[in-house]
Amino acid sequence: MSSTWHILGAGSLGSLWACRLARAGKAVRLILRDGQRLQAYQQAGGLTLVEQDQTRRYAIPAETAQAQGPIHRLLVACKAYDAAPAIAGVAPRLAESAEVLLLQNGLGSQDEVADLVPHARCIFASSTEGAFREGDWQVRFAGHGFNWLGDPRNPMIPAWFDDLHEAGIPAEWTVDILTRLWRKLALNCAINPLTVLHDCQNGGLLGHLGEVQALCVELARLLRRCGQPQAAEGLEEEVQRVILATAANYSSMYQDVHAGRRTELHYLLGHACRAAGRHGLQLPQLEHLLQRLVENLRARGLPCD
Ligand code: NAP
């Protein structure tokens, strides 16, 4: 079986993973959106990773989804709303026992992908690392963090897991990946939409703690109803800790909105509200939050799904 890491999506996180794996001598191939993007990439001569004051370019080979050859190991590094359409393009190339590692934030996109590639093993990741694009094909490693990986259907650690340690990618295998993803989703729901609505940094929510608290109560009820009681434990305290620790930061949703980019709302607050609906749970604060956010995005001319 080939040990090449195919990386679908050479944006912020995809490039960060690609450069570290390539630096450690692992075989890496990028899969880019189309021929035009491939040509632009080839003209740039590779991916550039900026880390503290070090800048280094990696001439990682790239192709489009239409290239030939089976894919045994695929890292999907698109936004949540792009993951399923992107995987559809490479699905015919996925080998019978292929492993697909999904880096998407939130919940829902993982199942959309898994439905499209039932023959592959889908591994979910929850990342607290931070990276952003300084320009096309140039990424800054902005925040050290950690990656939890797991497969809700199969607790066996993948054979390639040590590649991550060898590449300096901090990671741990967990059998509770869904708990981690739900907890992160809940933290996001309690903080990010409010920063957009109140037009503030995370610390600005210290002036709206009543609203935050009411959301946490509903989110904890939802987590328990979804069979995730551990993700509900101490949620409100953690939300307050995150608000204090990141008081000067702008949330990812705030940054997306202010850059005129589509948000991942559908896979975050949208997912929470849909899950509540499926369980017949009335969560008026969360539903009102979603409604206000959708109106806000619509008024800005941004996609609201
Ligand atoms: P990003 O910088 O926008 O990168 C996404 C990449 O996907 C882009 O390069 C885009 O291509 C590519 N793409 C989209 N459709 C494609 C297709 N059909 N074929 C090939 N490539 C395709 O996004 P990101 O910030 O890395 O985020 C990726 C995921 O990681 C998100 O769910 C995010 O929430 C999560 N995450 C990000 C961070 C972070 O610090 N960035 C941290 C934790 C979690 P183009 O370049 O052609 O547009």
UniProtKB/TrEMBL annotation:
Entry keyword annotation includes Nucleus: no
Enzyme Commission (EC) number: 1.1.1.169
Keywords recorded for this protein, A-Z: NADP, Oxidoreductase, Pantothenate biosynthesis
Coiled coil: none
Pathway(s) annotated for this protein in UniProt: Cofactor biosynthesis; (R)-pantothenate biosynthesis; (R)-pantoate from 3-methyl-2-oxobutanoate: step 2/2
Matching InterPro entries: 6-PGluconate_DH-like_C_sf, 6PGD_dom2, ApbA, Ketopantoate_reductase, KPA_reductase, KPR_N, NAD(P)-bd_dom_sf
BP terms from Gene Ontology: pantothenate biosynthetic process
Classification via Gene3D superfamilies: N-(1-d-carboxylethyl)-l-norvaline Dehydrogenase, domain 2, NAD(P)-binding Rossmann-like Domain
Superkingdom in the source lineage: Bacteria
Gene Ontology terms for molecular function: 2-dehydropantoate 2-reductase activity; NADP binding
Pfam family of the protein (one): ApbA_C
Reactions mediated catalytically: (R)-pantoate + NADP(+) = 2-dehydropantoate + NADPH + H(+)
Domain Ketopantoate reductase C-terminal: 176-292
Chain ranges of the Ketopantoate reductase N-terminal domain: 5-152
GO cellular component terms, A-Z: cytoplasm
Class of this enzyme: oxidoreductase
UniProt keyword annotation of NADP present: yes
Function: Catalyzes the NADPH-dependent reduction of ketopantoate into pantoic acid.
PANTHER family noted in UniProt: 2-DEHYDROPANTOATE 2-REDUCTASE, 2-DEHYDROPANTOATE 2-REDUCTASE-RELATED
Database matches in NCBIfam families: apbA_panE, PRK05708.1
Family, per entry: Belongs to the ketopantoate reductase family.
UniProt name for this protein: 2-dehydropantoate 2-reductase
Species per Swiss-Prot/TrEMBL record: Pseudomonas putida (strain ATCC 47054 / DSM 6125 / CFBP 8728 / NCIMB 11950 / KT2440)
Organism placement in taxonomy: Bacteria, Pseudomonadati, Pseudomonadota, Gammaproteobacteria, Pseudomonadales
Name of encoding gene: panE
